[in-house]
Amino acid sequence: MKKRLHTSIFGLMLMALVACEKADPELLYGDILGYVTVYDQDQYMLEDLSDVVVKLQSNTLQTETMTNLSGEFAFLNIDYGNYSIYPEKEGFVRSMGEDDPVHHLGGYSPTRISCSLNEIPRFGLEIDSAGIESGDISLWLSIIDWDGNPKHWYFFRCFFSGSPEVSKDAFDLHSQGWIFGQWILEGHYSAHLTNYALDNIDSDSIYLRIYPEALGQGIYAYNPESLGKASKVLAVKHPSQE
Predict the structure, then answer these.
(1) What is residue 149's DSSP assignment?
(2) Do 203 and 162 meet the contact criterion of CB atoms below 8 Å apart?
(3) Is 0.70 topped by the overall pTM?
(4) For 193-232, what is each residue's pLDDT tens digit?
(5) 82: which of 27, 168, 220, 230 is 20 to 30 A away, CA to CA?
(6) Which domains are seen in the chain, by residue range?
(7) For residues 100-136, b (16+ Cβ closer than 10 Å) or e, as one string?
(8) Measured distance CA(132)–CA(233) in Å, rounded
């Protein structure tokens, strides 16, 4: 009985080895197809989606291609495995959360992906006035160098510090803010932020600087490359000094 069992197991293993040898090696390779959508600073999709550089990378492969007029791209005959996709266009950044590895199975069915790029704002913002009360920050802002067509909303990142040298590279706290394009009134608009940690800044004044921010960034984490022009620094009396 044991001899028959051993013979059966050996036979199954032999059949598996033969099957592997006969497997079509082309099934280990396949195409990765995708497209990139590109939006300007006012969140309108560009008509011409060509010339976006798309990079494909893994531990064993690094290659790149370009999109066509419709934003489509293709990597052909790619070995199965996990890959990272990086679309790049000067003046644009990728939306956060789209950088998960692509699991490519190979075979006759292509792996399909999509991603997007958002323009780094070309306009600037200035803080005309600001007030802080119990962690609530009220801002009155001016928009400059703006020739767009308002649509939906615009984001900005506000940096706080006890030092007048506050910037995106030197700060104590930061918060994301936004305004509706429809609320822009002759180049001015109001905005509100909340940051209850401002009381922890040990200074008689709190210094603020803001940057317009590309669409698709995180609330708590941010990409410094997504920020546009820096505003001038504005000093506000610390709430504890009121």
Answers:
(1) -
(2) yes
(3) yes
(4) 888 788 888 888 999 999 999 988 888 888 999 999 999 9
(5) 220
(6) 23-119 (2.60.40.10), 124-241 (2.60.40.2060)
(7) eebebebeeebbebebbbbbbbebbbebeebebeeee
(8) 15
